[in-house]
Design a protein that fits this description.
By secondary structure, this protein is α+β, with helices and mostly antiparallel strands. The chain is built from four helices and ten strands, in the order E-H-E-H-E-H-E-E-E-E-E-E-E-H. It is 21% helix and 32% strand. The protein is globular and about 40 Å long. Bound molecules: the ligand CSCCC(=O)/C(O)=C/O and fe (ii) ion (FE2). Fe (ii) ion (FE2) binds next to loops. Ligand L3FJYLFB binds next to strand 5, strand 8 and strand 9. It is found in: Cytoplasm; Nucleus; Cell membrane. One of its GO terms (biological process) is L-methionine salvage from methylthioadenosine.
């Protein structure tokens, strides 16, 4: 596992595809991400079709489903609507597991104090966000990514926009944070 780049975000109104780093930058470590339930692997995306390291993660964690989404305005149907939807703060009832095969993307997650942490994802980065965490997704200024979506069993893509505090999974996530 090599490193990942993450930082606390500023709250400027600038285009959300820009980095939004504080000045000076306040980096967030992998350990801090793990403390809020976010896990990360670095893989070789050039061999994803026959990668024993990916196979092992899938087997160990039961990621039986996978597909590949290309996010590009000329290739993804309803691109604008989808990008808007992905950037709405939301949670899912299951873990969100994403593996960047090409291009770049940002995942933003809320920390314990409700601050936004931005996670910069590039080719070869695999990340898992726990069920119940508030988060959002955006492309970077390069406007392109090809990403593998993994899931345990049949995928459920439904997102619940904040506020979604009444869901058991949210309460479970918040309780787990308190114990950690
Ligand atoms: C890169 S996959 C599209 C984003 C998505 O599915 C999601 O739920 C973002 O939070
Ligand atoms: Fe999501």
């Amino acid at each position: 596992m090599t490193s990942i780049e993450a930082w606390f975000m500023d709250d400027s109104d600038e285009d959300h595809r820009m980095p939004h780093k504080l000045n000076p930058n306040e980096p967030v470590s992998l350990k801090e991400l793990e403390n809020i339930g976010v896990f990360y692997w670095k893989l070789d995306a050039d061999i994803y079709e026959a990668d024993p390291a990916l196979e092992k993660i899938r087997k160990d964690r039961g990621y039986s489903y996978s597909d590949i989404i290309t996010i590009d305005k000329d290739k993804l149907p309803n691109y604008e609507d989808k990008m808007k939807m992905f950037f709405e703060e939301h949670l899912h009832l299951d873990d969100e597991i994403r593996y960047i095969l090409d291009g770049r993307a940002y995942f933003d997650v809320r920390d314990r104090e409700d601050r936004w942490i931005r996670i910069a994802m590039t080719k070869g980065d695999l990340i898992t966000l726990p069920a119940g965490i508030y988060h959002r997704f955006t492309l970077t200024e390069t406007n392109y990514t090809q990403t593998m979506r993994l899931f345990v069993g049949e995928p459920v893509w439904k997102a619940y926009n904040r506020p979604a505090d009444e869901f058991d999974i949210r309460q479970k996530y918040v309780s787990a944070l308190q114990c950690a």
